[in-house]
Amino acid sequence: MSCLNELLRALTVIFVAASLAGAPLAALAQTEQPPKRQNQAQQQQKPPAKPRTTTTPGKPNAASAAAKTEALPPSQVGIGTLAKQAFMVDPQTSTVLLFKDGDKPMHPSSMAKMMTIYIVFEELNAGRLKLDTRFRVSERARNMGGSRMFVELGSEVSVEDLIKGMIVLSGNDACVVIAEGLSGNEDSFAERMTAKARELGMTGTVFKNSSGWPADGQWTTARDLAVLSWRTIDDFPQLYRYYAESNWTYNNIKQDNRNRLLKTVPGTDGLKTGHTEEGGYGQATSSIRDGRRLILVVNGLTSMSERAQETARLMEWGFRESTNTTVFRAGDTVAEAPVWLGSMDKVPLVVAKPIQVTSPIGQPVSPRVVARFDGPIAAPIAKGAKLGTAVVTLPDNRVVEYPLEAGADVQRQGMFGRVTTMIRHYLFGWLS
Known about the structure:
By secondary structure, this protein is of the alpha+beta class. The protein is built from 11 helices and 18 strands.
């Protein structure tokens, strides 16, 4: 999803669809090369599916809702919000729905813990850690202030308990145990966090500790935290479930997850709240409904209740006012390409992932789709081989691309067939 980070920089206007960047054309080297021809483009347009609507229980009166929205501090993209920084994206189409100072430096607070957790998930996926791996609690970890898991000095705590401690309890002490266990000390771990942020495309982020505890020079942006949220969901689908736990008990102390939307907003399954005196109250939130996911990051709110109310309002707005239209489903044929010296004359070109467009509810969407490839394509061809790109021209004339793959295996002709085909070509021209 590295292309997600690039597409989000575009920030054109609200509800303009974007998509994953296309892959480069794949060259198929053959002993007998097909005749050289100019780039071939085939176009196939398909009427978009009827936009689906999302119903929201207790939908407010439209006029009163509009009046309240107009009275709020404005955003550069999307509706007004009380948050000082706000960023909402549909990660499936890379469409930015809400942007308010989304690239302005801000304090990450406990939302920084998402990077600590990301690194733990990465270690688990690589097999370098196990959920029952145990780390010892140092005096520094035990003495951490703020929100805590209440680990005991000298005890050994499992990685799974530390994950829950960081996510559900927002434990600063749990973060230090992880940092010291993986890197020896927190400074070294913070450098690793920053390096990982650069790798993920979080260009406006610098970490100074593992918990988000206030520190000079520690910054992030709402956009960067949205990128981290999506990468966590997309890279670790089996481990992301920990973000949905609403409460947990450790050391005989039960604590509730500070993410109130887990209980109040349908489909919410993460991620992390945060608060510092300098930055105010913030939250990275993700919700999914009918297969469509939205990610929202806000910061600079004045209280826990305002954070919960404003985050819920914005998330409901995102689902209520926009929808995704599927232009092509995964596996759909966009075009057919001619084959040189193959058992089939043509090979279907398909998309591996759906081509979707985000738009306001009720607005018709008719993007133009053109298949580009170098053809004819020499056999043999393996199903799934990258053969070209689907170029999608959006209503605002922006162009985005999806990779096209071979939809079937195509065997090479036998000797007699190859000779016959070449004779036909040189005597009568390419027949397609």
